[in-house]
Every structure is written in structure tokens, then in C-alpha cells.
Amino acid sequence: MTIRDVASAAGVSPSTVSRCFTQPEIVEAATRERVLRMATHLDYRPNRAARGLITGRTGNIGLLLPDLANPFFPSIVKGIQHQAHLSEYQVFVVDTDEDPAVELGLVRSLAKQVDGMILCSPRMRPAELAEAATVSPTVLLHRRAGGLPSVGIGNADAMRQAIDHLAALGHDRVGFVSGPRRSWSGRQRVAGIRKAAAAHGITLEEIGHFAPTFEGGSAAAQGVLLSGVTAVVAYNDLIALGLLNALRDRGVDVPRDLSIIGVDDISVSAMVRPALTTLSVPKEESGREAVDLLLQVLAHPGARNPPAETLPCRLTVRQTTAPPNQRAATRTTA
Amino acid sequence: MTIRDVASAAGVSPSTVSRCFTQPEIVEAATRERVLRMATHLDYRPNRAARGLITGRTGNIGLLLPDLANPFFPSIVKGIQHQAHLSEYQVFVVDTDEDPAVELGLVRSLAKQVDGMILCSPRMRPAELAEAATVSPTVLLHRRAGGLPSVGIGNADAMRQAIDHLAALGHDRVGFVSGPRRSWSGRQRVAGIRKAAAAHGITLEEIGHFAPTFEGGSAAAQGVLLSGVTAVVAYNDLIALGLLNALRDRGVDVPRDLSIIGVDDISVSAMVRPALTTLSVPKEESGREAVDLLLQVLAHPGARNPPAETLPCRLTVRQTTAPPNQRAATRTTA
DNA sequence: GTGAAAGCGCTAACAG
DNA sequence: CTGTTAGCGCTTTCAC
Q1: Are the folds of B3-55 and B64-144+283-310 the same?
Q2: Has the keyword Transcription regulation been applied to this entry (chains A, B) (predicted)?
Q3: For labelling alongside B321, which of A237, B169, B221, B224 has CA 20 to 30 A away?
Q4: pLDDT (tens digit, 9 = 90+) per residue, A90-113?
Q5: Per-residue pLDDT tens for A35-68?
């Protein structure tokens, strides 16, 4: 079923059929209607590859993300897909398995097949990011770098909210459990929490680097216990959850003996008991925004000052935060 | 950067360059090496759309699934992607949001852009499935229907394992909490558990139909309590988890007062306490198998007896199953 | 407002 | 083994 079949069936030239789909307004109403009716009747659908060959646009966008197994990312995928479909875009999803080394290669191999890419929490170095942007129009999601268009979240403000909450509860020794070294968000969060802690006169302990997974969180338990803090903020919910579990297995009561705050507000966080106090980051929304931004970039290539949006996070207080337990030390040794 | 650029740079014809990529063995070693070196040097990459226009193959496969927010599906996506990338295939992921009405439309709109599709847990009716298979080579994942190639899991056997386990523990009144009415797996599981229960002389209570989500599980709590069973098997882990939580909020102790078994073994199930006893279904593996099967179908179109694989499930006993509590009724009323 | 012709980048006969 | 030719399905000048 090609455009020529429709053309001859409708008694017009292929060009006219083409115009009916790409610039309907310039073709006479009667003709257009006849053609479109015929097209529907024959169940004709333009071949996007053929169209792309001449227009240079594929109608696809690429999405690179570190790990679909972290429930944070599927939410983003849903937002991105929803918004992309509204504009008739299809999305290629690529999971990099948290391996920075393969990111650029995947971008390159995808470049020809997409009109643009959304790089979600990329672990690449800035220079690689710049190169990626060279290969295909790029929007950064949850990262900012080198003037590339981006949509991010208010990491520093999120940390401030966390510290404000803990300070109000009376904590004065707080830990931060770091995620991957290469994570840009992680660096933002550390910087933000340092500043917020200082503002409150709170002592901040930075605890290791851990994989941004449940297992990573379990591995952090030891360090958290040794640090002597009464509360911790974790790089993300998965780490917070792993920590929560490992602590419980060692007989530590959360939140009585230790308060925990995560980041992301993945669905699991509300499913466990005690339910995790966390910083809710807009997931589907940031995905949608990223698509809008990308389409905008595609529509106005080479525009100056590509926008860098920042979406706010919001503290969701659940059950893992409480005032510090003054007698905790006594109890543990007793 | 087209094939002609490479051709003239290497002093050969475009066809030769083409052959170097598609059938390297038929071109003389020296020539081939020179061409490939030139191609690398110029960073030439074949345009897949152009190639597809003539070969009729896109190098893409489509993946339709009901809900990325259920952690079960991201695991499958990972398996599928991994395997697809090994054969240089890219994958379009489409989330249908558990809406059977849109499935066929999405298949149609994707058909032209892919070489084949994997329909994962589709909710369509058999006739629609048959139509989908008409539009594009199709492999069913976690469903079987009308002789289409498929990879599924041993649902009935899984239910048998669950019932064996509960029977061994001493339960004789067991509930099954159903998922979506349209779910084929759900029907398989009901049939399987009926048979298994009968074989053990166990009374089976079938409890409602619920959304295959955490909320769906919460909604099931009331019915489970009223049914008077001492153990339930849920359609999936998400329902089991929602149920677990809702019960705890009502003061029901799991597993003392009620045993719960889920299906899927999503990662969350091991993160909660009590950790969920569940039937582990091979997720990444079934994804990989589906890709293999699809590629096989693409390689031998029209082959007879398309294979219908069945992968086994395995009971993972964790903390939500225990012998029935004889004094439960007394306690509740006391 | 519509048609004819050219060509996007590539592969597949067919010669040589 | 390699080059020449034709054309995949579509959009887009350029005439009419």
C-alpha cells in the first residue's frame, strides 16, 4: 500500500496525496476529502522511513537512562512516552546499566535513527556530553552541563528541606549517604546539604559512595552505624530502603534510633513499613517537560539561550523521621 | 556522510562499500580493509532508514506492555533490550496503561516501523491478536493464543507449587485474589489453583477481580478478611504487597493470622518486611527468549508449528507463609 | 490547485 | 570480485 496506490484510486497524482498529509490546507477541500477517504479506506499509512529519507526527520526520539530496574526511571519513561505520542513521536529506550563507558557509543549508534535525544541522568563527562550534543540534538534530564538545554530538579533546595525538617526535629549530627561518584545529581546534593547543614550549625558526615541500589543501601549500614549520626539523608530511595532494611536486621529501630530520608519518592517507598520519608521529585512531569523542550529545540535549531528548567521537589514526611533518641546509645550498650 | 563519499574516498563503487557492510566475505580482503578503514576514518554509518526502504527490514522491534510502573515489566524490558542489541536491533517500547482498547491501534501504528513485535501480557481478545499478527510478525510473551509463537510460563505448575506449600503447612481453606478480568495469565492461574486445591482437598475461595497494583491489593483486604481463609495466593506481587500492607494496618499479623503468596518475584518483594513468599517467574530470561523466538520467526517466515515455549516458575519461600493459626478466630473476637 | 520529475541513501540484480 | 543501473516510498521544486 503506497502513496501511488492511493493516488490512482483517488484519481490524483502522488504529489497531491502527499500534500494531503503534510500540508492539507493547500489542497482543495473536495480533493482532500476524497483522497483522505480513499486513504482510510485502503488503510494507507505513510512510510516514515521513506519520508525520513527525504525530510531528514525520523519521527523518533531516543531516551538513554542508567537503569530501568530503579523504579524512578520507568516513571520518567511513562511521562516521556505519553508526551512524545501526543506529537506522533515514537521513543527508543536504551538502558545503559549504569555503565558510563557505553553511553557515548549508544548515543552515536542511535543518532541516525532519531531526531533528537533525551539523556536522563547521564554519567558521561562534560566533554562527552558536548560531543553527544554534536551528534544529535540533545536535551539533558536531571543534569545540567555546558549550556545544553536541560530540565532538572532543585537538588539544593531539596536538601535544604530535608535539613530543615531534621533540624526542626532536633537532630544536630546528620549523615549523607552518597550514590555513584559519577552522578551529577549526587554532587549537587552533597553541595546542597553541606550548605544547609552549615546554616543550621549541624555536623554533616559524608558516608562513602554506594551503588544507587537496594544492595548499595545495605552496604552502607555499617558506615552509618559507625558514624554516630542520629539521622541520614540518602542519595536516593533505593539506597534509603536498603539501609532501612539492613538496619532493621541489626536490631536498629527506625525512626527511634535513626531517622532516614530518601530522594525520589518511588512507589515502593510508600509500600514499606515504616514508610519512607522522602523528597518527592516530579518524575512523569520532568519527562514530559523534557519532551516539550526537545521538540522546541527541534523546531528552532540553533536558537540562543537554550532553556534550563528547574522543577521543585517537595518533602513528603512519612514514618522514617522522628526526633533523635537521647537514650539510644545507652540502649544499644545495655 | 553517505556511502558515495566513502566510495570515492576509497576509490571504489558504492556497491562495493555496501557489500563491505552487508556481505563482507564476498569482497576481496584488501579492498574490504581499505574501505572499512576509510569508513571508520570518516565515521560513516549506514543510514538504516535508507537501507530499510529497499530491504524492507527496519532493524527495529516493537514491544507492547501493559504498565511500566509494575516492576515486573522493566525487568522484561531489560532482558529484551539486551538480547535485541546483541543482534543490532533497536527496540520501541510502548506502554498501554492497561488499556486493552488502545493495544491494537498501537500495534498498527508501529507496524510499519518494526520488523516484528513482542506483545507482552496483551489484554486483547484472540481475534484482535490474530489481526495484530497479520499486520506484523508477532511473538506473544506471557500469553498463548491461536497457534501464535509464544513464550510463556508454567502458570498451572506455579499454582501447584503454591498449593503444595500451603498444604504442607496445614492450610485447608485458601483464597485466590484475582487480577484483571482480561488477563490470560490470570485465567490460567485460577484454573491451575482450582485443580491443585481439589487434588489436596483444599477449599478454594476466589476473591474478586482487582487492579494488578498495590492499590488493588489494598482494596482486596476486606474481601480476604470476610472469606475466612487462612492463606491466600494473589494474582501478582503488587496485589500481594498491597494486601499485606492493608492487613497490617488493620492489625492482622502476617504470617501468623494469614499466609500470603505472590507471583512474579519483583524486587520489592524482597525489600519489605515480612518479605513476600512468591513464585519467581523468569523475567529477563523470558524477555531474551522472546527476542530469540522473534528473530527466528523473522528468519523463517511462514514456518510451520511456531514454537510455544514454556518457562518454569519456582517457589521462593520468604516470610509471609506459616502454618495456620488455630487460635486466630478466638483472638480476633477476644 | 495540481502534476511531472528528480532524488533522499541505500541495496540488488545484472553484467563484465 | 567489482561496477553499472534501477528503484524502494516519499517529498519537493518547478511548471502548468
Answers
A1: no
A2: yes
A3: A237
A4: 999 999 999 999 999 999 999 999
A5: 999 999 999 999 999 999 999 999 999 999 999 9
- The C-alpha cell that represents B231 in the structure block: 492463606
Over residues B111-137, the mean pLDDT reads 95
Looking at the partner chain, which of B50, B75, B273 has a beta carbon nearest the beta carbon of A53? B50
CATH of A155-281+316-329, one of 3.40.50.1980, 3.30.559.10, 3.40.50.2300, 3.10.110.10: 3.40.50.2300
CA of A75 vs chain B CAs: smallest distance (Å) = 6
**Residue of higher predicted confidence among B129 and B327:** B129
The answer on pLDDT for A306 being more than 50 is: yes
B40 interface with A at CB cutoff 8 Å: no
Q: Nearest-CA residue to the C1' of D11?
A: A54
Task: Tell whether omega for the bond before A46 is within 30 degrees of 0, i.e. cis.
Answer: no
* Strand D proximal residues, A:8-67, Cβ < 7 Å: 14-15, 17-19, 21-22, 44-47, 50-51, 53-55
Within 7 A of a protein CB, which nucleotides of strand C?
Answer: 1-5, 7-13
Taking the stretch 23-82 of protein chain B, residues with Cβ within 7 Å of any atom in nucleic acid chain D are: 26-28, 30-32, 50, 53-54
Please classify residue B330 by burial: count the beta carbons closer than 10 Å to its beta carbon, then call 0-12 exposed, 13-18 middle and 19+ buried.
exposed
Structure confidence at residue A2 (pLDDT):
95
Asked if B109 is an interface residue toward chain A (Cβ–Cβ < 8 A), one would say yes
B34: the nucleotide nearest its CA (via C1') is D2
DSSP A181: T
Give the pLDDT score at B327: 53
* Predicted confidence (pLDDT) at residue B259 exceeds the cutoff of 70: yes
Residues B49, A81: C-beta atoms closer than 8 Å:
no
Fold of A3-55: 434 Repressor (Amino-terminal Domain) (1.10.260)
Q: Is A4 left (phi over 0), alpha (psi -120 to 50) or beta?
A: alpha
In chain B, residues with a C-beta closer than 8 Å to the C-beta of A242 are: 271
Tell me, yes or no, if B241 comes closer than 8 A to chain A by beta carbon: yes
C-alpha cell at A138: 540533545
Q: What pLDDT does residue A326 have?
A: 67
Alpha carbon distances (Å) from B179 to A199, A267, B145, B239, B329: 51, 19, 19, 8, 28
B214 CB near a chain A CB, below 8 Å?
A: yes
Nucleotide with the nearest C1' to B1 CA:
C9
For helices B3-10 and B29-42, give the axis angle rounded to 10 degrees: 120
This prediction has a pTM of 0.93
